[in-house]
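Suppose a classmate hands you a notebook page containing two proteins, each written out with its sequence and a corresponding row of structure tokens. How would you begin to make sense of it? This section walks through that situation. The first entry is reproduced here exactly as it would appear on such a page.
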Amino acid sequence: MTETEVIDAIKYMQEYQTETDKIEAKTAEKGCPQKCYDTISAFANKYGGIIIFGINEHNNFIEQDVYDVNDLQRQITSLCTTSLEPKIRPEFLAVTYNNKKLLAVKINELPQKKKPCYYKNVGINKGSYIRIGDSDEHMTDYEIYSLQSYTDGIEEDLRPIKRAEFEDLNQEKIKQYIEEIKNKKPNLSKFSNEKILKLNGIIENSTGEIHPTLAGMMVFGEYPQGYLPQLFIACVVVPGRKLGDVGELGQRFDDNERVEGTIEEMLDKALTFVRRNIGTMVIIDNNGQRTDVPHYPMKALREAIANALIHRDYSINTEGAYIYLRIFDDRIEILNPGDLYGNNRIENLGTDNMLEVRNNTIIRLLEETTDIVENRHTGIATMREEMKKMNLPEPEFENLRGTFKVTFRKENEESNMQNKTEQIQSGQKWTEVDRNEMITNMESTQDKILYLIRENPKITQIMMSKELGFARSTISSNLQKLKEKGIIERMGSDRNGYWKLLK
């Protein structure tokens, strides 16, 4: 942490009138703030961050002297080492800015296996926080469990399904698997069939009774959903661009299917559903030959659906959640239960960085029995390349709280925004109800912000935040993107200036 980094953070907050997921402002004019353990916990559990004491977030983020730099540092050190578990080792830097004495405290992200950091006075369930935008939120039970199961090395796909019996597995497939595995791995030939199945994670018999494991059911099961009813894919076609849109006949969905079976069967059925509903383009080559080409690359969609099935969280905590495949007029969304696993990060997807995997046994069994994981570790790169071939935007990846989401779009954001901007600029008069409904129905946050700016060029970020119900950090980041695109420009000061539309 350098003085330049701290000053840049202050300038950012003052310009955009907001904190971020890595910057927090706190006043300390009259003493150490009574509550800052939540921010320290949140930064330690996410990506780290800087707390700047001596900045008043409630008064335009102006600078105020801290009461005593040395005492404040001692108080924060004591909090980090005696009240938080595990102990946090903060970095301190005293800074003088605009003749005001400030104290910056840098909290580094904890190693994944030491998370969560929590406030000991209230315990792990109530004292664990995570940074979401510019706020510190209590971690959910699932988020805490996910961290603890990673630390403990729990393999959820080896969990026995105690209601199920060996006969619930496809016996023909099991027989074929044993024969092939003996040929490929001669050292296993000396064991009984039962032991081979146990060693390979297909059954569990430690209690004297044989039960299929979750991995065994999802790869070899006759009908896995008979025992795991929510482990399916909900496939829907929405007649519009958002959930809740209805078609001309009042239908909520143009197509709707519950896809069940093993992982291999669900992948095939889901792809059939997609082919049936995404439509095709007719391409005529130089020889007059006609080819029907789907609007989206099937290879990319196959990788995304396969990833959802393979890498979803199969723990008891998410056993009641299913995979969701949604086809809208302008995009396809695939959502699966579970955060990114372990140390995986969005920015590392599709790179040479080795990723950790949640369901090792499922992956190995699929590798031995199917071609589903033949592109192992290259699936993300394949999705990007296939979309690029069709001049479509790159797939979007979002690690939401307890859900991972992949989005494929038909058009890029700029053209989509231009179409909507033209509609907004049409001069149509709106009633208050019409206006609010139109803003709600806009898909993009940037569209909503642009509409508010056209209504009132002097609107502030705080006003936008209240109007739209978004965190100020969300408003700030989208305003910055609009600036970078050359769509808007800020004229004058933050307090008395206004927004100028350039396009």
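The notebook's second entry, a different protein, reads as follows.
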Amino acid sequence: MKDKIRVAVLGSTGYVGMELVKILSNHSFVDINFLGSETIHGDYLNNIDNSKVYNHLPLLKSNNSFNAEDSDYVFLALPHAVSNKYVKKYFNKINIIDLSADFRLDNIDVYKKNYGNDHVCKEYLNDFIYGLAEINREKILGSKNIAVPGCYPTSILLPLIPLIKNKLVNTENIIIDSKSGYSGAGKKFDINKMKSKIDYNFYNYNTNNHRHIAEIKQELNKHNSENEVKFSFNPHILPNFRGMISTIYCDLNNSIKKIDIINLLQELEKINPFLKYIKNDETLDFFSIQNSNYCKIKVFDHYSEDKLIVVSAIDNLIKGAAGQAVQCFNIAENIEETVSLL
């Protein structure tokens, strides 16, 4: 049996952090030996969130008190512009899996435009592997620094990169319409925006101006050598707590048919344990992916045969964050990819 790998989680009391701790606490090759928080110290996670079981875990301590020499891996479930400060302290001292946006982007100017100027170690940007597991599996294997993708990009890139890479769709006019549960906005989100005494709310926000556009564009263009991928992106917030669905409208390239798309997705399903092609007589909804690490993909007809509608669904807290982080950890350590995720 493989020796236990000592793991620390900083930011363990946020939505993503708690999901991460839950998954890692059931991992047969992991020993969680440090749990950090920015705000809660000297207590146990069981007392913070009694809806989940966190057995035999260490007392919560300040994130700043973590010593990199005590663990083999640190998972940073921290906000954007905060995570990079810890990377500055720990780089080359420990394996780092960062769940913020601080090391997803290759260009510091693009980062500053989207997240502000507060980045203290831009020199490490290119030392992180973009942790989209199904696309970058070989790069992740053995990697010491991994940047976990955002939730919207994960739901979009997993179906779209293979279509672009295999030249099945036109890259000039892609339309992406995404809908997320409100947990994606974090614990500071004002729930009053979603619920009133008599009804639930639903709205789009940051249309074609969302932070994740730069990340989506960067990764799509890496797989398209001919020209820049052009797309519109319209994200929405739903009154559901968790879940994400992205609907992608594509123009098929000449001579490409719907069956070509389906065949590719079914081939990808065979070699990727968390990609699932959903047949048209099966339902694809939030209930089908909640509390799972799956990305499920379904294809719909358009009124025109040279167009296609592709829908993907993920749990934004798991496949869009904590689950994908553990999937990357498993790959990096050459552990069975599905450990603690099925």
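A careful reader of the second entry would note: The chain has two domains: 5-127, 152-316.
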